[in-house]
Amino acid sequence: MAKILKGRAKKLGLPPGSLVYAGDKPDRKLKVTILEFDEQECREREVSSFAECLMLDNPQTVTWLNVDGLQHLEDLKNLGECLNLHPLLMEDILSTDQRPKLDEWPNHLYLTLRMLFYNETSDHLDTEQLNLIIGSNYVITLHESDADLFDTIRSRIKSGQTRIRKSGADYLAYTILDLIVDNYFVILERFGETIEDLEEELVTRPVPGTLADLHKLKRDMIILRKSVWPLREVISKLERRESPLIKESTGIYLKDVYDHIIQVIDTIESFRDMLSGMLDIYLSSVSNKLNEIMKVLTIIATIFIPLTFVAGVYGMNFKYMPELQWHYGYYMSLALMALIAGIMLLFFKKKKWLGRK
Amino acid sequence: MAKILKGRAKKLGLPPGSLVYAGDKPDRKLKVTILEFDEQECREREVSSFAECLMLDNPQTVTWLNVDGLQHLEDLKNLGECLNLHPLLMEDILSTDQRPKLDEWPNHLYLTLRMLFYNETSDHLDTEQLNLIIGSNYVITLHESDADLFDTIRSRIKSGQTRIRKSGADYLAYTILDLIVDNYFVILERFGETIEDLEEELVTRPVPGTLADLHKLKRDMIILRKSVWPLREVISKLERRESPLIKESTGIYLKDVYDHIIQVIDTIESFRDMLSGMLDIYLSSVSNKLNEIMKVLTIIATIFIPLTFVAGVYGMNFKYMPELQWHYGYYMSLALMALIAGIMLLFFKKKKWLGRK
Amino acid sequence: MAKILKGRAKKLGLPPGSLVYAGDKPDRKLKVTILEFDEQECREREVSSFAECLMLDNPQTVTWLNVDGLQHLEDLKNLGECLNLHPLLMEDILSTDQRPKLDEWPNHLYLTLRMLFYNETSDHLDTEQLNLIIGSNYVITLHESDADLFDTIRSRIKSGQTRIRKSGADYLAYTILDLIVDNYFVILERFGETIEDLEEELVTRPVPGTLADLHKLKRDMIILRKSVWPLREVISKLERRESPLIKESTGIYLKDVYDHIIQVIDTIESFRDMLSGMLDIYLSSVSNKLNEIMKVLTIIATIFIPLTFVAGVYGMNFKYMPELQWHYGYYMSLALMALIAGIMLLFFKKKKWLGRK
Amino acid sequence: MAKILKGRAKKLGLPPGSLVYAGDKPDRKLKVTILEFDEQECREREVSSFAECLMLDNPQTVTWLNVDGLQHLEDLKNLGECLNLHPLLMEDILSTDQRPKLDEWPNHLYLTLRMLFYNETSDHLDTEQLNLIIGSNYVITLHESDADLFDTIRSRIKSGQTRIRKSGADYLAYTILDLIVDNYFVILERFGETIEDLEEELVTRPVPGTLADLHKLKRDMIILRKSVWPLREVISKLERRESPLIKESTGIYLKDVYDHIIQVIDTIESFRDMLSGMLDIYLSSVSNKLNEIMKVLTIIATIFIPLTFVAGVYGMNFKYMPELQWHYGYYMSLALMALIAGIMLLFFKKKKWLGRK
Amino acid sequence: MAKILKGRAKKLGLPPGSLVYAGDKPDRKLKVTILEFDEQECREREVSSFAECLMLDNPQTVTWLNVDGLQHLEDLKNLGECLNLHPLLMEDILSTDQRPKLDEWPNHLYLTLRMLFYNETSDHLDTEQLNLIIGSNYVITLHESDADLFDTIRSRIKSGQTRIRKSGADYLAYTILDLIVDNYFVILERFGETIEDLEEELVTRPVPGTLADLHKLKRDMIILRKSVWPLREVISKLERRESPLIKESTGIYLKDVYDHIIQVIDTIESFRDMLSGMLDIYLSSVSNKLNEIMKVLTIIATIFIPLTFVAGVYGMNFKYMPELQWHYGYYMSLALMALIAGIMLLFFKKKKWLGRK
Lengths: 357, 357, 357, 357, 357
Fold this sequence. Notes:
Chain A is α+β, with helices and mostly antiparallel strands. Chain A has 9 helices and 7 strands, in the order E-E-E-H-H-E-E-E-E-H-H-H-H-H-H-H.
């Protein structure tokens, strides 16, 4: 399950800006991909150290630096120093359980948000932090593990005459944000289907396992909400920002992302409402089942208990029991029992306890 | 049931403005109706292509272009180009699960809202997206299926000397909005009647099916609320707008629509409160029924179990059981049983378990 | 029960300002009372047509025009025309299920609010819409049925040297508002007493009927809240209004009405909280009752079932059962039963199931 | 129990400013205490009429006029006239169920708040309205019954060189407010202890009476909240007020009172949260008890019912039942019963129904 | 358990600024540590009286005065006088149950917040008030008991060339705040683990003790929230403050603390949501258990009750019962019983009551 807090305890008492890796994927190798492009050209490289960071200064091209794996503190420190990143920002990058936020630094914007994955093997929702640094002519993305998600953007850039190649770093950043938010819809559609299946199941044949599923969904909704809700404010700030790093032409695209986030939040709230309603249905169907069980018990017991009593009476061994000597006594006793059973059945019929509920 | 998200997954990774039809009515034919009118004249035509779009430029007349069926991407693309619509706007038109919103573009306003239908055959609430583009002298409405709703407006226009004929495109847009919001009231009145019937049923004879009905109503309320709530802000923005596209004289009409939406929202909230209360009543009536069942069982069992025991005692086969030899032993045992039953009945009477509750 | 929406469906597709009577009291006769007064004089008349409406122009006197019965569309149309009322305002007057609101028109203020009645015969809360038009020297009140409530104001005006006679139309409007809000308190005190009675009943002897009463009260609270909550904003706007129609000296009186409305809302919220608490109490007392029933059943059954088993054993017909031949076998079996019963009773005593709970 | 509304119905239809006593302590005598002091002197008197009210004009001294008992309408009217109090203000003083508010009049501030008492004899919370009028050099307190609370302030004033003697009327008003708010803490500490006792009781030995206690506490919290919540805004307005009646040096003291009220509100909310949690615990412990009862019944019944059946079979009177003739038939039947009982016990052990839960 | 209010009752009626110790640790000795440092030097001393307080005036060095133990009113009074602290501020220091707040005084800022501890021996959350006074070149911390927490800061200061040594009093104050907020994360991680363990336990084997644990966690969340929520506003005010006491360079560090507090609050809310969900699961699992118990009882009882009746019938002692004489009567009766049992089992199978649920 997605942990809500990760490794914060390790940092207690350290000075601010101390670099401590707080995640739980300690063995990943560092993988750095650099994609430089302008309207004419597009070059992709993988590098092994951050010595060459200075080339980000070329104002003609847009550079996208993508860092996979955040365990290599020394490399990150180098990166931070050559880009002049504040120690607090570096600390934020390594705190992999942050809520989405936007910090404005003199030469760049720092944005953190959560990518969502549905982990098929363990069948639960996972989140991962994406750190995004937007400079005048570069975008840096830092995250813990492979983000295959970005491959579609990379191929769009390489494929040529798209808008991205003609626009600046801010539009590249928008493209990344848009992809991540679109991915939220994919996750939500999946949840929507699960919820509808569960709803169907609830009405037709509720089983105790349903409750555990409901609980898992509710918990996933808590994590989803926690991941998405603050992003609304982040994008809103970005859109309204007079920062020279965001061009006005990119503003309407960010507005579109903002609309999408609002719809994501709206949908999460609707799902939460539905899940609450489904819990009520489940609990009530459990009550109905108990009622039905009790009804069966009561009908059987209340019919046979008096009959058994009558049989018990005539099973007594008193010396003088006139009925026992009667020739038709046995049949009369059976008739008596039938009469009692009949009265009971009539009573239940009046109470509407018989037949299909 | 109205799906909350539709086909968003298809668009993952596509560049912004990619035209993908996200709805679920793939086979509809495109049907385009053009209604041009001024105070003197009114002409209606159906067209088969968007080549003639330029005639919207005639500033003397108001043109209402109504498009049924959104699957014909090529035609829509032509329309978008000749009207100079932004690719993001075109994308919004095809995303048929959007929340109501208002976007202001340089030459027109784009407004999306949800039309509500009560689907009688499948007995549930359906919603459909209406896209509305308001220009200086034209209104374009785009939606997935036939909107018979609009026929009343069309005939009002054709019938002659009404206010619409004398007013501009903004008043026509108001008329459409007003019709859709008035239709919400029709849907709500229908729900109000269903809720009152259900309430009546709950108090007199609750059945398990009631719960499923309650759940369906609650779910419909979630969808209703999601469809109407954001519209409030949309109309409020429209009413306060200094946009030259909305004339001041239309403002008081929009204020009236706004008041209606507030009342719709108010009514939805009241219905939600009522439905919550009804769920409590239902659950409690289930509990009461269980209590009644248990009472019957307990009364029968606790009266007869001791009697059966007495009968069992005198059914034992011990050689020396003096009572068995007594001449009136049998009658005395019956009297003992009657006494026990009597005491039990008195006890239940004291507990007030007997009689009509 | 007070309907939440009335006859909205009838208006679907009609042009704005169409006059359709939406209420449910179709047979009332129109009754128009005109009360003209200044500091010296006071004249009351009943009229049968609206031809003489022009006399409202006399700036020296204050005129109160009270209209009972809103089914007479022709008369209302005449009134609207001679007072120059906007068609949308006329439509609002006839939509008898509106939420309270204040509209400012060039020459008058239009205010709609809800009068509350406790209908003794059907034992439920009823609401009726009061339409109030405040002009420079006249007040018009329009409603569906007799408002006997206004008689007290009328007699205060006629009785002479009161503040109303010396003040203008705005003070008369305040007097009407104040009366209606004071009437809310009367309704609330009545509810307060009902709630306290019910609370008393709940603790001492809960009956299933209690739940229906609770539900009725909760529903009435929903209607009350819906009727009063928006009025807060209406009066607040009125009080802060720079409209020349409201004199500053009337402001402090309106502030007083505002304080009263806040207290009404506060009280409704407290009642809602109390009713929620009472529902919990009721449900819990039902559970307790079930527990008690089950305890009785369990005690009786678990004592006698083993005893009956012992009797059953010695009622078996095996040829060789030594105990049956013993001289004191019978008494020993009775002693065994007494022992079993005793152990059971001790067990129940330890569990604290016996005695007063 | 503290009534939420008192005697509002009596005032229906009366003109604004009509003096009607709305409280429920009709027999109290009027008691007026005047305390005049400056830095040098301090004089206390009791007066029997309001003829001498004019002496409040002495600008050198601070006068505290305390009025016990609000039934003497004639006296209050005199007081109101000589102090030039507005009829609406006089009406507010007599409406003893008001929510806290602050009204600014030209020459004085009118403040109403609620004093809380824990009535030991009837064991519930009581509230009483305190009316406070702050003038340039006088403070008037009006309330229904003896406020012994004020004795500590009076003795602090008389005792000499305290801050109150040196400061003006505003500081005296602060002192009164501070005392009342401090008294809230006393009430809250008392509730805190009751809640902790109840919590202890809930976990160790829940009894049905617990529920009634919980309900009483919840109800008291509703009243407390209603009494304190609006006071926050009142004090905040008073603190920020530029009114010349409140000196700047008194501001920081009022800020302190404000902080206390925030803490009172915070504490009430925490208590409410705790009480909700306790209700859940109680309801759940009732369910657990039912489960335990049912478990006992089920264990006893399911063990003995099959055994009794076996005994019943061998108690049948068929002529030809071979087992009955067997020499060890009886012992074999007992062994069979023991076997059945053993299997049942193993089943229950597997289900973990035996032993300490 | 952490008390919510402490000793407020003692102060009722005392003048403002009266020094009364409201805590519950009466026996602690006073321990005062003074740490003076600048970039070159760092001196630590313990002092026994506050006579030497004047040395705080040295503008070249930063002085951190740490006071353990707040019972020594005379010493505190001396401290307050030599630092010119307002009596209300002194009173706040001794009110050890305050909600976090920030007061701005002419020469210093007063800040109170809550330190959280997890008391391992009594296994519950404890809070303690930290009072923080920030002057131009000094920071004073006052609290009731040893704060070992501060040792890490002290050793960082002593260890030499860290940022703290080069920065002013405001940065020292930030360091203290940061440490306390980081400690919140440690507490929250601990709660996170407890919640996950409990969740695991709930799903696999719910025991009644689980409920008590849930309740304890919910209660701790109430206290946590009460302690942290107001701190958000405090730090936000501090960060935005134009107070010359907070340098701009410290602002970005305070922003970082603010982000952390937001995350703490977010996490508390998520935990609260999860705990609610878990309570639902628990209650529902209790219901399921009852259902299972009832099912077992019902199956056993409804199978054997009719069988026992049949046995009872043939155990009757009527003289003329033909079946009894039949040679295979016994076997036929057994066959009849087997038939009845079989029908019952089929019925239960159809109801899906048999087998693994």
